[in-house]
Each structure stands twice: as C-alpha cells, then as structure tokens.
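Schema walk-through. Below, the input block comes first and the output block second. Nothing else is stored per chain. Lengths vary across the set, and this one has 136 residues.
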Amino acid sequence: MDTQKNLMMFTIVISFIYGIWAIFAPESIMSAYGTSEEFVNPVVLNVVMLFGVAAWVVAILGWHIRSTVTEENVEKAMSYFALAWLLYGLHGVLSEKLQTWPEGLEPATFSESTIGGIVFLVFSVVYFMLRKPKSS
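--- output ---
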C-alpha cells in the first residue's frame, strides 16, 4: 500500500503547487496556456484564481483521503485520484479548443496545454492500473 500512498501524496503536492501558481500568478498560468493578451482581464484572472483555490481543495481532500485509507478502501480511494487526474487531463486537452472556439475545432492544435493534458491522462491511467496493492 506504500505505492498507493506515495501516488496520493504526488497528487496532493502537485495540486497544492498548481493552486499556489494559479492564486499568486494567474497571468503566468494564462501565458503558459497560450492565452492571448486580449482575453486577459480582471474577471478572467479572478476565475483562474478561483481554480487555484479548487486545486487546493483537491489537495486538502486528497490529504484527508490519504490519511484515512486502509487496505479495504485503497482501491476506491485510488479510483478517486485517477478520476481527478482524468479531469485535469481532459481540461488540458480541451482548453486549447475552448479558447479558440469555434475556429479551434480545425485544424487540431497541439500546445503546451495539450501536452500537459496528455501527461495528466497518462497519470490517470497509471493511478487506475495501480489502484490495488500487490498481494503479500
């Protein structure tokens, strides 16, 4: 069960760091996602900061889940963590499309956001595959 707890901690740390980034440097996140300056305004920055708070909520809930996980419920807990990575990944893959709607539908774009989304989708698969501890 050490592997599962370590993977849970990885999610917690990444969510916490992403939250700090979004709350204290929302312009930097917008730039990393390739958002043109014409779309950056106080309302959008506030929404990015709100998503940073949501990332902290994921970290806090993850910390709670990690502290209460047992051999009996570790598979279910890991499934929740896999779902969280799936959602992060889908956001990364789809965000480029949403920012350039409707022109972004064709041709397919492949940005840093898309690459990050693919990495997060891979994390989701890894977490799902490792959801059960090895039998002793």
